């Protein structure tokens, strides 16, 4: 089926590529795709194309990778050229998903039907860069996708539609990301079909209450603070899979990545936080500020993620060893 609505798409990671693929498969013309410049990644730090760029190239879609869209920023010439290209590309609406560049008002004003953003939270909760991670970390019972009209603020635009999903006890950022990417793809295609049919999309202003910000995940957050409750650490481990993982540093300075862990109640919780209380093929138990954390999937530097039984075969841990407390001298 083909559609008359022409969609410029702006996005960068897998989450965005799922939406672009759905829009393209549904038969909408995509006269231009915007994505971030290639970035160094992997062990060799070679320049890598974003998932959105790869999709665009595989399907012969026109592509632009401006460093900035702000004339007042560090790259005014690139921004001016990109804005010219937008104006010169006939289109009706722009869809934005995890693009990663700020869109100034001048850009938001170019498409006849404005810009629609696919955001991975139930706004106004978790505006900002890392809504999937932060929802898991905070222990939210549910999250979802919100489509909104973009304005110049950070995720402050009026809401068009939402799709909710529960956060399951074993969800990681990776599993939840996959579900939300599918939901976002479905929601945006429905909205574009509606926009084409009626020439408009109803929207509701975001509530003023309940605003939270999902700060970008920083590498230093990976260090687990054993003084916190085991429940909170278990959520942190799930939130930080696939990036940056949870990290524990033993007293001898060796580090262990922790990829899966569950909270357990402590029978003897008088051990100092960070102390390994028990080691078995079912898990490594570590005393926390409240309860104990059972570590079930671990990785040593340069190694692979391993179930605890296999990990212990190559890297013995023993009861009484201690993990350092981050920030404690």
From TrEMBL:
UniProt KW keywords: Protein biosynthesis, Transferase
Keyword set includes Protein biosynthesis: yes
EC main group: transferase
Domain Formyl transferase N-terminal: start-end pairs: 7-192
Molecular functions per Gene Ontology: methionyl-tRNA formyltransferase activity
Matching NCBIfam families: fmt
GO CC, any one term: cytosol
Pfam family, any one: Formyl_trans_C
Upper lineage: Bacteria, Pseudomonadati, Pseudomonadota, Betaproteobacteria, Burkholderiales
Protein name, UniProt field: Methionyl-tRNA formyltransferase
Catalytic activity field: L-methionyl-tRNA(fMet) + (6R)-10-formyltetrahydrofolate = N-formyl-L-methionyl-tRNA(fMet) + (6S)-5,6,7,8-tetrahydrofolate + H(+)
Family in the record: Belongs to the Fmt family.
EC code: 2.1.2.9
Domain Formyl transferase C-terminal: 216-315
Positions of (6S)-5,6,7,8-tetrahydrofolate binding: 121-124
Function of the protein: Attaches a formyl group to the free amino group of methionyl-tRNA(fMet). The formyl group appears to play a dual role in the initiator identity of N-formylmethionyl-tRNA by promoting its recognition by IF2 and preventing the misappropriation of this tRNA by the elongation apparatus.
PROSITE patterns linked to this entry: GART
């Amino acid at each position: 089926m083909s559609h008359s609505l022409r969609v410029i798409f702006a996005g960068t990671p897998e989450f965005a590529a799922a939406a672009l693929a759905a829009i393209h498969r549904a038969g909408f013309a995509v006269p231009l795709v915007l994505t971030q410049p290639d970035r160094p990644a992997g062990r060799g730090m070679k320049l890598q194309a974003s998932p959105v760029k790869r999709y665009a190239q595989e399907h012969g879609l026109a592509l632009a990778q401006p460093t900035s869209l702000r004339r007042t920023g560090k790259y005014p010439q690139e921004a001016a050229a990109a804005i010219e290209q937008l104006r010169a590309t006939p289109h009706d609406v722009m869809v934005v998903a995890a693009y990663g560049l700020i869109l100034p008002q001048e850009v938001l004003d170019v498409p006849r039907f404005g810009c629609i953003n696919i955001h991975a939270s139930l706004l106004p909760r978790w505006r900002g860069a890392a809504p999937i991670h932060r929802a898991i970390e905070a222990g939210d019972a549910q999250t979802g996708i919100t489509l909104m009209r973009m304005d110049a603020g950070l995720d402050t635009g009026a809401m068009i539609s939402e799709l909710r999903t529960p956060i399951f006890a074993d969800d990681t950022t990776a599993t939840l990301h996959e579900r939300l990417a599918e939901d976002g793809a479905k929601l945006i295609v429905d909205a574009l079909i509606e926009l084409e049919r009626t020439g408009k999309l109803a929207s509701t202003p975001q509530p003023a209450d309940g605003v939270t910000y999902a700060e970008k995940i920083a590498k230093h957050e990976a260090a687990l603070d054993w003084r916190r409750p085991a429940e909170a650490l278990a959520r942190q481990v799930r939130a930080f899979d696939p990036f940056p993982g949870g990290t524990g540093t033993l007293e001898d300075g060796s580090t262990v990545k922790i990829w899966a862990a569950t909270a357990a109640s402590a029978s003897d919780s008088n051990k100092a936080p960070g102390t390994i209380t028990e080691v078995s093929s079912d898990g490594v138990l570590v005393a926390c500020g409240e309860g104990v954390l059972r570590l079930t999937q671990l990785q040593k530097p340069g190694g692979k993620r391993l179930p605890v039984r296999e990990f212990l075969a190559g890297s013995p841990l023993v009861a009484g060893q201690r993990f350092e407390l981050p920030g404690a001298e």
